[in-house]
Amino acid sequence: xxxxxxxxxxxxxxxxxxxxxxxxxxxxxxxxxxxxxxxxxxxxxxxxxxxxxxxxxxxxxxxxxxxxxxxxxxxxxxxxxxxxxxxxxxxxxxxxxxxxxxxxxxxxxxxxxxxxxxxxxxxxxxxxxxxxxxxxxxxxxxxxxxxxxxxxxxxxxxxxxxxxxxxxxxxxxxxxxxxx
Length: 180
Ligand code: IMP
Ligand code: MG
Hints:
The chain is of the alpha/beta class. The protein has helices at 12-29, 45-52, 104-114, 173-178; strands at 5-10, 35-41, 59-67, 79-82, 92-100, 120-128, 141-145, 151-152, 168-171.
C-alpha cells in the first residue's frame, strides 16, 4: 500500500500537531456552549475521531453520510445517504469534513442542517484545495491549504482504498492509470 505512494505531502506528525492546534482553538472559541460535532462520513471519520479527543469541553457527536460520485470524479450532485440521529435545535454545530474541494458537499450539508434550526453552524476541514472551488464557501477551521493534487490517506480514499494510511500522500501516476 505504502509502495503506491509517490510522495508524502503531510506527515503523521504534522497532522497530529495540526489537529491538536485546531482542537485547542475550538475549545477556546466554544467554551461552555452546547456543541455538536457533525462528521461527514466516510472521509472525515479519522480526522473527527482524533479531533474530538483533543477538544476539552462537553460535546455531542453525530455522523452524516454523503456521496457525490462519477467513478472517481465528483458528479456535482451531492446526496445525503444518512441523516442526523441527534436533535441539534439551538445547538452550536461544527461540521467536520476531510477536504474542501469544489465546496458542493459542504454547501449541501449546511443547507440540510440549517433546516433543523441549530443556534449556529461552523465548519472545519483538514485540507483545503482553494484552486478547485466552484461554489463560494470557506471553512472556519482549516488544517492545511494544499495544491490541486488528488490526495489519499488519513481517511481520504482513491476508489475506497488507502483510507488507513497514517499520512496524507500522493499516489504514483501508474496507480491512477491502472485503476481507471
Ligand atoms: P467537494 O464537494 O468537491 O468539496 O468534495 C469534497 C469531497 O470530495 C471530500 O469530502 C472527499 O470525499 C472528496 N475529495 C475531494 N478531493 C479529494 C482528494 O484529493 N482525495 C480524496 N477525496 C477527495
Ligand atoms: Mg468525503
